[in-house]
Amino acid sequence: MTLNSSRGSPAFKKTLALLGFLLIAPVPTLGVWFAAFESSDSYGAVLWVAAKVWLLFVPVLWWRWVQKQPIAVPAPSRRALTWGAGSGFLMAVGIFGAYWLLARPVIDFTALAGLMASFSLDSVWTYLGLVVYLTLVNSLVEEYVFRWFMQVQLNALMPAIAAAAGSAAVFTLHHTVVLAAYIPWGFNVLASLGIFLGAMIWSWMYRKTENLWSAYISHIGADIGVFAIGYHVLFVAGSA
């Protein structure tokens, strides 16, 4: 999957890029809103699934059949793997370390664990199953949507740094919405700032390596740090 489109007049390409961006940008936030806040209603679950299907298929169909671009998925290069693993490890350590040093001393673990348990996250196996899905599958879909498709469209409309910031902002927004269901707003703001920074780093890595594997592997590392915090809150500190 390449970073630039080459067919058609510049104005036409920009129009298609803008339409492609608008087709995708609102969907992640709407999907997590229905999952987090409308999950008690059957239509909420249906709309969440519809959003996931939309995000999975529309980008590649738009790219191939509307923008008429070839699909090429490069194999992971040594540089991409090294950058991804190294940055992912640093992110995991940094995320959990920030939680341990800054957030842990002031968190009401009983209240937070109770809140998360209300979303059926009080079973170790349920939690670990969710972690596996979010870490391995959902993070790949997010990189495909935000670091590839959305950034490609924005690159046709604005400078690279602005495109990276735009895709990072949309990426952050849907995380902010879902975190609002689980954690207080003060922690949500701090987490959202970290998510935005991580997204900018992944965008930079993708541009430098021209390989989505670097961002994906780094994303896995960040998720491991996040879900290690969740495990500690739910099954260590929250049950003490």
TrEMBL record:
Alphabetical list of InterPro entries matching this protein: Rce1/LyrA-like_dom
GO molecular function: endopeptidase activity
Statement: the UniProt record of this protein carries the keyword Membrane: yes
UniProt entry tagged with the keyword Transmembrane: yes
Transmembrane segments: 16-36, 42-63, 83-103, 123-141, 153-173, 185-204, 216-237
Matching Pfam families: Rce1-like (PF02517)
Keyword terms of this UniProt record: Membrane, Transmembrane, Transmembrane helix
Any one of the GO BP annotations: CAAX-box protein maturation
Residues annotated as domain CAAX prenyl protease 2/Lysostaphin resistance protein A-like: 126-224
Protein name: CAAX prenyl protease 2/Lysostaphin resistance protein A-like domain-containing protein
Organism per entry: Reinekea blandensis MED297
